[in-house]
């Protein structure tokens, strides 16, 4: 899990703070490992210099236990350093003067616990950002489907709403039938603050081509949709934390997500659909995807199947090309998929 904060002194950071962070591959889910002083009064930081001092103190404690650490390097709103044989620790400064330590990228559980203890002894008590309410969950649907739109959804819930949704069956949409997901999405829309961004194939293909020409990819497109949906929900009322089902660990993608809600921590987590807020967003996104797929099917007179490259998907594509020509794919499909080549070969 990664944590992003926007701090008031971030605009006065020295130039070295704005160097692009080295890409980190985050492909594992672990327990929340953000450590925040909670009950003690905040200790004000005198700008970024204090953050360097606290980071060095944490490194000294780890080195005292026999672990090598690297020199800290700047990242957005904080610092990061390596510990042991590949773990990465990130330290963020909060606007109230407190410090957050993120050890989610430390792969060795024993070393992660040691970082926890060292962080606590330097003045940071252990707590979870996931205790904050209200929460906004965000998820997408259609990313791996050849036909149909790409959809991002965000849902805001308080603790009472989350418990009620879970009790009535809201869960990861991948475990829910199409009929039930439509019912759950209707309930979620009635009872919660929601926002969806739906990108139909014609616009999707145009925007994807534009991004590809600039060296960007699908994750950048998806980050923009997520940011738009999250921003609309966050603007509607107070939010304690935003949780996004992780789809990329690229720093520029995570920075785009953090920028949509200044002052609110954004967590990206693999398998975040276990969180009720994210599960609700996944149900809403999938329902809107199914709506878009049905609309396109009606327009072209062919039932467009779900999936990315199954024989049924290829057959449907070939039928469309035979009946309406290859240009029809740009209206109903994500043409950069390799499936397009299989369809045209037929």
Write the layout of secondary structure elements.
Elements (H helix, E strand, L loop, with lengths): L1 E3 L29 E3 L11 H17 L8 E3 L2 E6 L3 E7 L5 E4 L6 H13 L13 E7 L8 E8 L1 H9 L10 H14 L1 E7 L1 H13 L4 H17 L6 E5 L5 H9 L6 E4 L6 H25 L10 H14 L4 H4 L6 H7 L1
Parallel strand pairs: 7-10, 10-11
Antiparallel strand pairs: 1-11, 2-6, 3-4, 4-5, 5-6, 7-8, 8-9
Which series of helices and strands comes N to C? EEHEEEEHEEHHEHHEHEHHHH
Please give the alpha-carbon distance between the first and last residues: 44 Å
The CATH class of the largest domain, by name, is Alpha Beta
Q: Tell the overall outline.
A: globular
What is the average of the pLDDT values?
A: 82
CATH topology category name of the largest domain? Nucleotidyltransferase, domain 5
By DSSP, the count of extended strands is 11
Low-confidence stretches: 2-47, 123-127
The number of domains: 2
Name given to the CATH homologous superfamily of the largest domain: Ribonuclease H-like superfamily/Ribonuclease H
Content-based structural category: alpha+beta
> Mind summarizing the main beta sheet?
6 strands, mixed
How much of the sequence lies in strands comes to: 15-25%
Helical content, roughly? 40-55%
Q: How do the strands line up in the largest sheet?
A: 1-11-10-7-8-9
């Amino acid at each position: 899990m990664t944590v992003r904060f926007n701090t008031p002194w971030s605009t006065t950071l020295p130039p070295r703070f704005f160097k692009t962070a080295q890409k980190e591959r985050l492909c594992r889910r672990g327990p929340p490992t953000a450590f925040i002083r909670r009950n003690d009064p905040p200790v004000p930081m005198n700008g970024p210099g204090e953050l360097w001092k606290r980071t060095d103190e944490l490194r000294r404690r780890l080195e005292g236990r026999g672990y090598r650490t690297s020199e800290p390097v700047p990242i957005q709103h904080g610092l990061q350093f390596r510990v042991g044989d590949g773990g990465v620790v990130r330290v963020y400064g909060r606007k109230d003067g407190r410090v957050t330590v993120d050890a989610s990228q430390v792969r060795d559980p024993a070393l992660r616990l040691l970082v926890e203890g060292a962080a606590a002894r330097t003045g940071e008590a252990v707590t979870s950002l996931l205790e904050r309410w209200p929460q906004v969950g965000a998820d997408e649907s259609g990313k791996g489907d050849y036909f149909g739109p790409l959809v991002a959804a965000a849902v805001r819930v308080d603790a009472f709403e989350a418990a009620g949704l879970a009790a009535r069956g809201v869960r990861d949409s991948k475990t829910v039938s199409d009929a039930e997901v439509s019912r759950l999405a209707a309930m979620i829309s009635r009872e919660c603050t929601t926002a969806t961004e739906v990108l139909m194939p014609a616009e999707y293909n145009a925007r994807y081509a534009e991004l590809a020409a600039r060296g960007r990819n699908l994750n950048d497109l998806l980050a923009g949709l997520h940011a738009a949906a999250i921003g609309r929900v966050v603007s509607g009322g107070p939010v304690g934390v935003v949780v996004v089902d992780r789809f990329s660990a690229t720093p520029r993608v995570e920075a785009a997500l953090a920028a949509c809600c200044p002052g609110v921590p954004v967590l990206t987590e693999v398998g975040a659909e276990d969180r009720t807020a994210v599960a609700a967003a996944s149900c809403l996104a999938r329902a809107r995807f199914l709506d878009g797929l049905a609309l396109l099917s009606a327009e072209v007179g062919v039932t467009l199947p779900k999936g990315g490259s199954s024989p049924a998907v290829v057959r449907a594509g070939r039928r469309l090309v035979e009946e309406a020509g290859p240009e029809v794919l740009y209206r109903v499909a994500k043409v950069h998929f390799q499936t397009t080549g299989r369809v045209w070969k037929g």
